[in-house]
Amino acid sequence: MFRSPDHGLSPSRRRASRSAGWRSATLAIVFASLSVEAYGLAPQVAPGGLVRWPGEGVDRCGLQDRTWLPLAGDCWYAIDLLTPQGTITVSRWREGLREVQDVRVGAYPYEVQYITLENDSQVNLSQENLERVRRENAAIAALWRRDSPRSFALPLGAPLENLPAGGRFGSRRFFNNQPRNPHTGADFAADAGTPILSVAAGTVALTGDFFFPGKSVFVDHGDGLISMYFHLSGIAVEMGDEVDRGEILGLVGQSGRATGPHLHFGVRWHGARVDPLLLLDLPEDLPVLTP
Ligand SMILES: [Zn+2]
After folding, report:
1. Rounded CA gap, 142 and 109, in Å?
2. What architecture is domain 112-280?
3. What confidence tier does 37 reach under pLDDT thresholds 50, 70, 90?
4. Domain 32-105: homologous superfamily in CATH
């Protein structure tokens, strides 16, 4: 139950971790029950939210089958939008020993949104378009497993120079009264042609003209963080380009499935769909685990 996945520590650390397996498991159980007893219920996070576990001497952080390096000493956990309500266990390693804490994932808190599209072929897809979307989704999903060195710090930069209020992350969507996938990014209304800026340094991992997202740019910022910019009128970069924070990636438009010119900005971190507004402006009430 407490066997550590391969977390990429040095061979000597890995051996130490294995030989200390039972001790690690016992400590983990004691640690988890202590934190619950001392502080009441485990902290709660919304699906699509973030949790921070501050600590010292942390080698590695982990959730499910992924592990990563701490960020400025702390472990950050991205909780995927479609995580069901319940309890999840987050991990970290110190001196080769695994420590765990429970986090409660709350009920799905986002609104329902009804959108009318005149172009019904974007709601009820032809067989050909269904196959196209499947191919595109497979190419895009390959990005979530990229593992490059981190090239960002939090908070991220804004994707538009004068970022208007926006969002609607997580909204459950009905297009022409038919239920469709929830909204996994934040929308910002802006004039067509407004420059779109990279939120951090990184490598352009994918560009293209996709069925739903339209003209799109995906940037890999390392540490499993991918930012994405949809519905562009023009793309200013090419796959493989190294970009700086604030560099122009393209221009606002309404390509793909969009009802007007706007930027759809989204992020995946360690594979999880999280509210990108949290990374642009770190909230003061972000759930923090006891050190
Ligand atoms: Zn959107």
Report:
1. 29
2. Distorted Sandwich (2.70)
3. very low
4. Peptidoglycan hydrolase domains (2.60.40.1590)
Taking the C-alpha atoms of residue 77 and residue 79, their distance in angstroms, rounded to an integer, is: 6
Residue 110 CA to ligand 1 center (angstroms) comes to: 14
Return the domain boundaries, the chain.
Answer: 32-105, 112-280
Q: What is the pLDDT of residue 247?
A: 98
Q: What's the 153 CA to ligand 1 centre distance in angstroms? A: 24
CA distance 220 to 254: 23
What is the band of 133 on the pLDDT scale with cuts at 50, 70, 90? very high
| Centre of ligand 1 from the C-alpha of residue 22, in Å | 47
As a whole number of angstroms, the distance between CA 271 and CA 266 comes to 12
Q: What is the pLDDT of residues 186-226, one digit of tens each?
A: 999 999 999 999 999 999 999 999 999 999 999 999 999 99
3 vs 17: CA distance, rounded Å? 10
C-alpha 260: how far from chain center: 25
User: What are the residues whose beta carbons fall under 8 Å from the beta carbon of 36, sequence distance 6 or more?
Assistant: 42, 102
pLDDT digits (tens, 9 = 90+) for 153-172: 999 999 999 999 988 898 88
Task: Show the tokens assigned to 157.
Answer: 């930069």
Sort strands 225-235 and 262-269 into parallel, antiparallel or unpaired.
antiparallel
CA distance 139 to 205: 11
CA of 39 to the centre of ligand 1 (A): 38
